Amino acid sequence: MQKKLFYNYALAFALILVPFCFQVYGQEQDGEKFNNIGAIAISDKYYLPPNRRAIVFRIRNNTSRSISQIFGRVFMIDKAATAPGKKILLINNPHKGGNIQKGSPHLPGAIAEWNFPLAVKPRLANQNISYTLQIHPRSIFYSTVEPMRKAKEKP
Length: 155
Prior knowledge:
Layout: H1 2-21, E1 34-36, E2 40-47, E3 54-61, E4 67-70, E5 73-78, H2 84-87, E6 88-90, E7 99-102, E8 111-117, E9 129-134, E10 140-142
Antiparallel strand pairs: 1-2, 2-3, 3-8, 4-10, 5-6, 5-9, 7-8
């Protein structure tokens, strides 16, 4: 009796923990790593569109509400620079928000591409130059009206 009760508790405990042991990789690309900062997660993969003064970051929405606007700072990190003031440079206007490119509206749990306009023409990323995005949780704005969910068809 006691042995059977122990097995039931062990089985229930294992079944409760199994969903938390695995991460879902629905929209993530191969080799993509997201840095979780609470309400959102920012991918380490970014790209500079040709002939544009902008940079595109992939951002995952971790909240239960749709995101309408994000304000952030884009920094260029030059590892080859010797002067401390030239190593990390702010290259965008933080008062201009990002524009959503793919994934509009940015629904909860979804990954969308956000385009941030730059104040200076960016240099191509190489081994010595990289870019990073800094977003404060208070600079994330949510939709006042949530988009309607698609109704499931009744059989």
